[in-house]
């Protein structure tokens, strides 16, 4: 059967040959113009004037757009309408687009836009550049969120006061740049009679259609947005492709010429936001075994200058603070701080990693301060299967496999023996210290905005028996099109090679959700299956009418149709269906059942099911330089019944390395006075490379045939959950630093654990010893 077969990504042969076209590779239409954005050179100020005439006189410049040129509302905020496309009145961060230059070629457009400093008159105001500074000023993009679960009013504080051990701490975790290899790009082409086609590298074509129409003062049916593939999105093209789509579109319509807007890497960093950095203050009460009796945490995210998706990100952070653990009395407070920096947005995990890492560090601190083994403390706190299994937001955890999964991994990775070996190594090694950690993951699957959990698809069977699928999801390298094609081939009993998936296009499937929250194959796979099933039923009815027997008994397999003892060729049956005037195309639709959510109380069932995983990491830290190496990683991850184990293992490995980059090497530094993001290119911003993969890297999928929910072929979403597996790397580094103090001092290690951060933590451990 096709579902469950390991096969390469449908475009892999094109990717490796450089033959997969991205938007900048599409043949340009005659008359195409190029846009570049003029960016605010200050982090905060009052915009007094733009010397447009000076820009227009520059070589190759055809037009200059400012906010005044936007025909509709100057707004591209995805949820809250606090985000002008081009700045007016105030500038809110260094890098904010203020104007756009449209020129005959990209080079000239960029040269002119680079004159921003000379043509903008801005009265500077003091910027607020850190989340804690904004928090102190109570400056937020959204109202506070509080998620509290108490057995009785006041029980949390009573439990904290009565607990045998009461601990407090703080933690700082940095943000992360998506660093998609294909940068943000839109190519807008006017069509006839006030129409527009936009090629946009986006995870959310419907939202781009909607925002472009809004900016133009048009209706949605005038705008078509298409995306064949992205060179990566990672959340960075869920909402933040909008400013590029809107600027290119407004220019194209105004000039009635095709306009392309592609920013270079530096501008991509300066204009768009990324993963929210978080600051935490926590307090827990626990018993002698390290079992948490009560926990309270305050999380402050750096939202940047506007709301963007910061609300749902904070919601997901609050709903993942529990990770795999039963917290009987718990209070969480979330603040989305407004700062004069880029507006932070979705990034793989969407706040989940930021929520869950806090409890992992807390449990590690509990273990250190009580002198217990961190894995024993984790196990003591796992959710139960029949009791102690309700999350703080009121959803019962009824698919819990965390204990058997961790047991399997502890055994296969030889955890206990290696723990002893690491201790022996450290006893004999004064400078190099090894660390080992095992961390679990539980991740909720579904958009935490319930109505986004819907999808549509179209399946066409042509008279030659070939099949074309279109669905609302977008392909960003994650293998969604491969999985959807497998689902359709499986349903029709035909070879995978017969099925082609076409570009995502708002003219084909309407009102789609972002391809995000890891739900792409869950939602679009189900929608495509629904369409294919209708076609199969029509073909079965025809076959039964010709050959006798029950339509339900007709079987489709291996390009053949088995009916009442006869055995037909699929193509021949299709040709007969056409001649019999049977409709050979169908739509399909899916909405995830059973979800409900109260946004005021933060209670309900936001997730259809949970995905689980665990990882063991072993590191060695050089205590003189602060550098570390990951020596070995063992990953075990639950994808239910995998739709495609090859693609899934690639997702797990990729997410692990990407998350490791977030926690170890990717550091964002804003100039403390000017607010310039100084790490705005690969020269200063360090993502992991192939060389950072551990020499021993073992990834396995957990045997779990029992997804309790009716997901597509009982598979589980895989895109984001494994990004939490590299918590093990951060905690292994923490373990190695802790070894410096003979495991008697809890190390104050911040993320990313750069050499500087590791040395700071080692200094603190030595000072406290
Ligand atoms: N994998 C690749 N190669 N490129 C990407 O951009 N994005 C991740 C993940 N895996 C991404 C990726 C993110 S943030 C999400 S939400 C999911 O893929 C989205 O796709 P899916 O829902 O189809 O898994
Ligand atoms: N919720 C969520 C969202 O859980 N994941 C997402 O990617 C998302 N995007 C927009 C709004 N809510
Ligand atoms: Mo993924 S952060 O939900 O695009």
UniProtKB/TrEMBL annotation:
InterPro entries: Ald_Oxase/Xan_DH_a/b, Ald_Oxase/Xan_DH_a/b_sf, Ald_Oxase/xanthine_DH-like, AldOxase/xan_DH_MoCoBD1, AldOxase/xan_DH_MoCoBD2, AldOxase/xan_DH_Mopterin-bd_sf, Xanthine_DH_Mopterin-bd_su. Keywords: 2Fe-2S, Iron, Iron-sulfur, Metal-binding, Molybdenum, Oxidoreductase. This is Xanthine oxidase. GO terms for molecular function: 2 iron, 2 sulfur cluster binding; iron ion binding; molybdenum ion binding; xanthine oxidase activity. It comes from the Bacteria. It holds the Pfam family MoCoBD_2. Its EC number is 1.17.3.2. The lineage of its organism: Bacteria, Pseudomonadati, Pseudomonadota, Betaproteobacteria, Burkholderiales.
